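[job 0412] stage=complex_fold ligand=iron/sulfur cluster status=START
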Amino acid sequence: MALEIKQVAMTGNEAVANAIKQINPDVIAAYPITPQTDIVQFYSTFVANGLVDTQMVTVESEHSAISATIGASAAGARAMTATSSQGLALMHELLHIASGFRLPIAMPVVNRAVSAPINIHCDHSDTMAALTTGWIQIYGENAQEAYDNMIQAVKIAEDPRVKLPVMVCYDGFITSHAVENLVLLPDEKVKEFVGEYKPTHELFDFDSPVTFGPLVLPDYFSEIKAQQAEAMLAAKEVILEVAKEFEKMSGRKYGYFEGYKLEDAERVIVVMSSTAGTAKAVVNELRAQGEKVGLLKPRVIRPFPAEEYVKALSGAKVVGVMDRAETFSTQGGQLFTELRAAFYEAPERPLMRNYIFGLGGRDTTTAEIRKVFEQLKQDQERGSVDRKVTHLDVRV
Amino acid sequence: MTLKGYKDLPEGGVITEKGNSALYKTGEWRSMRPNYYPEGCVHCLICWVFCPDSAIKVENGKMLGIDYDHCKGCGICARECPRKEKALQMVKE
Ligand code: SF4
Ligand code: SF4
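[job 0412] stage=complex_fold status=DONE, emitting structure tokens
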């Protein structure tokens, strides 16, 4: 059946606000932070104009925003909030509580650098610092993907096998504020896709009352964490199932990652989010000159589908992993170290090097990506990488 | 009490039974225990008033002894008992 196609011009934030409007959650807690602010700002107009049934709670900080969301979710509501940068950092202790309580909260996180120095522009230091909080993390390249991921996130989070919170991440300003062409799904299709929320336990079920958040001592704590780890493992499967179902409805294909001209590629760049778009342009350019180059754009990094990443990169000779956040381990970015570890058991390992790039919104243009591919080529010819970790485009 | 495995526990450590804190034997934490000597007791119930863990068993206005499943051994009862030498004494577990 052909879908009624609604092509629109929107910013990433407006697209995500529209996705949430179509999901029509019971509760949204809102606190502004650049570059997330206009998601909840758009949403407040939807509420004021009576387009949604959502109870909007304006709060005094992100700590309160996620607390109110957790409370509403535990009460049995489909509840959401959105944030960026310091806001996510301020939520940090509650992030563990949302996942520990197994509350399926889908939350857009518009990636922005964490202070200091203070900066409002994009990098991934906010969500990278939240990798161990038990949230699923999904990254999108552009407004369309942010919109699509938002809708899929609800279904992934609420699946009875998962019941874990999800961060829907996309790049601050580059994606959140630039106007792009994208296609919106019809309201009733989204409604049907996400379905009705069925909580496992709810505080407002007075016939079978429950306690959320009791003290759990050494005799049971490990078991609760093992449950969470198992749910994260289940999410691996559910993410693909939901993507399949989404593709059936929308015609748009999703998975753990996107491979771009990867099949016979010898030199591969791994990069997430908006920079992948820039990298595609360079891949096209170099392919036209006969260069065997390709791109792998991770979409899901929690759970981390290690075997699938290894398989996708197994034909490569040199891999340049680009991380948009420092870890200060001196051993490279998070994506780099995890991908490298994933190759430990692989019979054939490509050369791998790491680039820390685009911090605090530093533009990463086709010129920088070309430079990376040039270095990968030199590494391939030499048979070794000349430097494990490079800060790309940094003045000395 | 046999401990449950993670597959049998409610999701996220949620408690689904009403009042099941009574099943939790906090008495296992004790290093000192109050010994009760009924012959010396005048049934004033001061111990019952002061016990923070409702571990003093009382029926029909009479002190019946200690619920050792839940007594944590804090010693408050023995300290407040007006007949402490004769009715309640803390001893090492
Ligand atoms: S306080 Fe002492 S005397 Fe009074 S009831 Fe308790 S044990 Fe008996
Ligand atoms: S030792 Fe403490 S917990 Fe035990 S019966 Fe006395 S007051 Fe109660």
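The CA atoms of residues 266 and 316 of chain A lie 4 Å apart.
[job 0412] exit 0
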